[in-house]
Amino acid sequence: MEYRARHSSGEWRWLTSHDVVFARNPEGLVTQILGSAQDITDRKRMEEALGESVASYRTLAENLPGIVYRSFPDGRSMLFFNDMLRNITGYTSEELTSQGFSTIEPLILSGDREQVIDAVRDAVHERKPLRLRIV
Q1: Do 11 and 72 share a structural domain?
Q2: Same domain for 91 and 117?
C-alpha cells in the first residue's frame, strides 16, 4: 500500500507499506501484524516529473505542422504518431494498426518507398533527426 505521512519537519513523505498477519488469538482475531515501510518520496517525484515530461512532449508533437512519430529501433514499427497523421494521410494510427500496418510505409508511393525507408533506417542508426519533404 502506498500512502503519505507527515514528517516532523512538516513535509509530506510518500511511503510504501508491506504488512502481514503475524499472530491471531484462539478466536482467529488478529493480535499482531508484522510490517515494514519504505520511503518512496524520491520515486514519486521522479514519476511525477516523467509524467510532466511525457505531457510536454505530447503537447509539442501535437502542435507541430507535420507527422511526428516515434519508432522502435528497427525503424519500421511505430510507438507513437501525432494527430497530423490523420490530416496528412486521412488515417488515424488506430486505423492503420487495424489494417495490419505498423507504419505509414504502405501509404508511400512505391517509387519513393525504398528511398524513404533507407533515410529512416539511416537516421535511426545514426541517431540523427530525420526530415523528409513530401511533394
Answers
A1: no
A2: yes
> How do residues 11-65 score in pLDDT, each as one tens digit?
999 999 999 999 999 999 999 999 999 999 999 999 999 999 999 988 998 898 8
Question: Rounded to an integer, what distance in angstroms lies between the CA atom of residue 91 and that of residue 18?
Answer: 47
Amino acid, single-letter form, for residue 27: E
Please state, in angstroms and rounded to a whole number, the distance separating the CA atoms of residues 75 and 122.
Answer: 9
Span 65-75, pLDDT tens digits: 888 877 776 65
pTM value > 0.70: no
Domain around 44: 1-63
Distant-in-sequence, close-in-space partners of 116: CB < 8 Å, separation ≥ 6: 105, 108, 132
Residues 6+ apart with CB under 8 A from 110: none
Average pLDDT over residues 92-110: 78
